[in-house]
Every structure is written in structure tokens, then in C-alpha cells.
Amino acid sequence: MEIAVYNVEGKDTGRKVSLNDAVFGIEPNEHAIYLDVKQYLANQRQGKHKTKERWENAHSTRKIKRQKGTGGARAGSLKSPVFVGGGTIFGPQPRDYSFKLNKKTKQLARLSALSYKAKTDGIVVVEDFQFEIPKTKEFTQVQKNLNVNGKKSLFVLPENNDNIYLSARNLQKTKVVTLSGLNTYNIVDASVLVFSESSIRLLQQNSNIA
């Protein structure tokens, strides 16, 4: 499968990039994608949720009422979970949500996600470009020229470029990542992947992106 390379003006350069079947043509594994996305989202959780248990409440420990003769249940402390402001039973406690996922599974998930995008024409290749200074207006024009304006787009660069990153930072549906920062969640979350010409060639030279 070949994809045309466009310039920042949205015009066909006449060059084409051949998509490697080992990266963009495998049979997608949906379960691997699910596991990788699940791990990514789990790793984002801080796990700092906390409720006070009975022993942590600052209420007095005096007995509320006499033990017998009231006609009601026994009550020994306002810290009891049955009272408003008392301790919480089995409430959430700080914990680590992260879990291990095998490297080969992560690799399969990313290749599966890339193959999905290739099958649904969700990949655009643009020749390498630079901005002299950060300029959101210029970046928005590039999006319009490539017909990705208004779509959830992910721009993939071979290496970090501050001017391009800062130009796109304030755009709500746009994200710029380097090739090393490309992950399954970002691929699945985007409607269209915009690869720079050098980044897609580098990706295909090293299909082991996990």
C-alpha cells in the first residue's frame, strides 16, 4: 500500500511512501489494544482517593447513651459508621492502579492500532516542515491544507520540535508527539494520524516500537 506525500500547502509532492505490511498490514488484535489502553489509563491514575475510617475521626469517644433501656440499638461512639460524620466502612484507600503488561503484547497492540488506521484511511503523510517561531495561526493553516482541520488529529514527529509543539499546544483537538512517545491510546484516540515523512520512514525501519 502506498500513500502520497503532501507538503504543508496540501499539494501532492509526487513522492509516495510504501507502507510496510509488518507495521501497517497485520491482522489487528483487539484484545491486545484493549489491554494496552487499559494499562495506559490505569497508569494515569494517582490513586490518592481516601476516606476516613472509624479510628481516624476526631469525634469524642464518650458513650452517647446508656447501654440498655432506650428501646434502640446500642451506641458507644459518634465515630460509628451508622452516624452522620462517622467513619466510612470499606471506603477507598490510596493504592497503585498500575499493572505489568508484556512488551510483546504492547508491541502487538500498537501495530494493531496502526493497521486499523491504515485500513480506514486514517493516515496522512506530510513532508518535513519547520516553524521559525511558534505560530498557532500557521499550524492551523497547515491543518486546513491537509484537510484535517476540525478532526481529532495526532501529528507524529521524528524528534522533539518546540516551535511545532508550542504552535499546536492550544488547539483542542490536536496533539503533537514524537515517535518515541507514540502509544496505542494516542493512536486509537485520534481520528487521523499525520506523520512527517521522516518519522514514518523511521517507524518502518524499526517496527519494534514497544
Structure characterization notes:
- The radius of gyration is 27 Å and the shape is elongated.
- The chain contains seven helices and six strands.
- The model has no long low-confidence stretch (mean pLDDT 92).
- It folds into two domains: 2-45 and 99-205, Ribosomal Protein L4, Chain: A (3-Layer(aba) Sandwich); 47-96, no CATH class.
- It has a six-stranded mixed beta sheet.
- The protein has 210 residues and is of the alpha/beta class.
By DSSP (H or I, 4+ residues per run), the number of helices equals: 7
Count the strands? 6
Instruction: Give start-end ranges of low-pLDDT stretches.
Output: none
Classify the secondary structure makeup into a structural class: alpha/beta
Radius of gyration over all CA atoms, rounded: 27 Å
Report the end-to-end length measured between terminal Cα atoms: 23 Å
Strand order of the largest sheet: 2-1-3-6-4-5
CATH class of the largest domain, named Alpha Beta
Shape: elongated
